[in-house]
Structure formats: structure tokens, C-alpha cells
Design brief:
Its main location: periplasm. The chain has about 475 residues and is mainly beta. It contains three helices and 33 strands. About 10% of the residues lie in helices and about 40% in strands. It has a five-stranded mixed β-sheet with strand order 6-3-7-8-9.
Length: about 475
Amino acid sequence: MPRSLLTLPLTLALAASAVGAQDVPAPTPQAQPPAPAGQQPATQPANGQEGLVVDVEGGISAPMPIAIPAMPTSAVVQTAAGTTDVVGQKLSEIIANDLRNSGLFTPIPPAQLRTVSFPEVTAPAFDYWNGTGAQALVQGYVRANGDGTLTVGCYLYDVLAKSELARQGFVVTPGDWRRAAHKCADTIYTKLTGEGPYFDSRITYVSETGPKARRIKRLAIMDQDGANHRFLTNGQSIVLTPRFAPNQQSIVYMSYIDKRPAIYVYDIGTGRQRLVVQNAATTFAPRFSPDGRWILFSMAQGGNTDIYRVSSQGGAPQRLTNAPGIDTGGSYSPDGSKIVFESDRSGGQQIYVMNADGSNQQRISFGGGRYATPVWSPRGDLIAFTKLGGAFRIGIMSPSGGGEKLLTNSWQDEGPSWSPNGRVITFQRSTQGASGKADVWMVDLTGVNERRIPTPLDGSDPAWGPLRQ
């Protein structure tokens, strides 16, 4: 059961059981964390005007220097997460890694940062930090509470203007301390870029091991940075194309249980799974609607493959397409009014858009070559896809088909999935040859900031979940 929120003036409170996070509503965003030692906060910007802004396009070539010293503690206390001083150091490292991985920030190396005292958190030594070359400063603190929880404070400063830009506080159980770091990084990223947050989110994917002809494929879940990894299935049945439910409590995927491809929903909390469509035909490529009421999927029968939808609770499927050929890969627009999908009805794989009820089906891809696995951005402004032809590449286009742009240029990149803020895409990258392997990668909309996400084994079919609450 979820823990009750502590009554503290904090912007965000998180609570979790020892075995897994339980999401809880956030208090109002106007609240501020208490100063750690009775200090007055640094001067606030006048009239809400801030001088620091990161250009999400140009910032990639000139990342903002930012200082993130280890977070001090009011008293060194042993907790289930370790001593509070060690937790403070780890929190700063995670924040720095998140911001570095965005490609928009260059954290000053820890060896070049001095130790920050607890009272100094809200009274920064701006002259010193200016000398490090940092334009922005992140300071915070960790405090152990009597009930076993931790309070984490997070402050963002403009070094040159000597002003405070943002502050937030978090209450977490020791098992959930990493989320406080991701939430702090989200606060900084959002404040300095104007973009939405995405660090406090998870990815589900297919973990693979063994020779290519006999791969063991297990459903797995992890934080967006690869931490808190765990396997959800044992590998006795092949799993493919996992996708989160909007409430993050379950995952829909295809599995070969009973030797037949079929769609199942896996409950993350209980580990139970249930068959979605009671049908002898092959069902695959599932995805939830934005409101969680429907599951979109493809079903092959009678020599044809079409897109259907079914209530997420089960029931009779409703057919949405009926053109000859293969229609698959459906993805809803954020408002649930439209669906983008791929079809070979014109002779080769292309991207089409239709209304949610299946009406008004129109082709939007005309750039030459073939297109597959389209998925709508959570911002609604773009559609990501796999471009086929020689190599497989990840690309984006507008919902009308214009502005096509390829973001990657490797041998086989496929299966894009959007971050919660619509700024970054995760995908599968495979290497050539009999010993080739698949890994989980990310790329942002510039196509410049590209990196691999560490996983214990090979990884395929990644899907990004919504921002956690």
C-alpha cells in the first residue's frame, strides 16, 4: 500500500514501499523546500526574468558549463540507502550524468569542485563558482528523517547574476532515493531549456541472450539511465514489442506462450499476465491508447493483416482497416483522435494516418524508399519512423508527412520510441554478422547527441514509459 505523504512544505513528495515505488499525487508546485540551516535564499531574479537559457538546438555544440558539487548532510546518519553523506555524493553524480547525457550541459569535473558545507546550500560562494567557469550551479542537501525517510533539497543558481532560479524538495524512502536525483535533474533541465522533463521515467525492452538462431528473450524494465534493472519474465517464451500502459502499472506485449503469437498484458505489481484477445489468429504489435481504454493491435487472418482495437479489459475486437495487404504498427496521436500506421497496400511499406475509428485513411510518406514502425510524438508535432533501404535508419516527419529528417546513420537502427517530453528517441541498434548483437540506444532531435544505454545483456524493442508521478 502507498505510504501517506509527509506534511512538509515541499514541491514534490514521493513515497515508496521497500519493494517498489508507489506513485502518489504531488502537492502544489508553488511550495518551496525549507532552508537547511536557517539561511536566507540567494536573491531571486527580478520580475521573473532569468538570464540563463539553453538553446536545445545550438546548445548541443556549446553545452552549458554547470557545477554540481556533492550534496552535504545536516548529520551523517546510517540509512537503508547508506550514510547520508555518501547518498549526497551519489545524488550529485546522477544529476550530473542526467544533464550530461542530454548533450546540453557540461558538468565541471568533481575533482575541480570544492566541498560545500550544509549552511552554504542556500548561500552560495558565487565568486568561487564563477572562477570554475560554471554558468549555472546546482546545490542541495540530504537529511535523514525520524520515520526512516530522506529529505532531499535541490537548488539551481545563476552564477553570473548571483540569483536563485529554482528550488524543489523531495521526501523519499531510502529505496527510492535515485528518483529524487532524476526529479532534481528534471527541474534544472526544464528551467534552463523550457523543454518538458524526462529523466524520471522508465524503459521496458526485450533482453536477449544466446546464439541468433536460438535467442532467449525476456521482458525487462529499467530506469531511463539503465539503473534499477530487473527481468519480468523468465525467458521460457519469446516476448516482443513491449509497451507501457499510460498508468505505468502494466505492459502490453506479444508472446509465444503456447507456441502461438498472441498479445498479453503483464501487471508489474503482481507479475500476473492475461491474454488480451481470445482468438486462434495471430495477434501482434500492441499499443495502449493515451487514455488506457483501448489496445491497438494487428491481427492476421484469411491471408490479410489489419489493425484492430479492443477494450483494455478484453472483449470483442473492432476492425479498423480492411485494405488488401499488411496493415500494422499503429500508434495513437496524443489526444487519441488519430492513428498512424504502416501499410504495404501501395506495393511497399509506407506510413498512413487515419481517424481513431478507422475512417479517412491517407498516405503521408512520399520521400522515396520504405517506411516502418511509425509512432506519434507525445507533443503531437512529429512522427518517428524506421526508414528502410540499404540500411535501417531512425527518422522524423510532421503528421502531414513534411519535413522528413533522418537522425541516425548506422547499419540497422529500428523501432523508435519517444521520451515523455518528445525530445529524445530510444531505439534498437543491431550490428552485422553471425556474432552481431542488439543494443538499446538514444538520439535527440538534432541527430547529434547519440548514446547507448547500458543493459546487462543484449537489448531490443525498447519502449519509453510516461513521466513518473
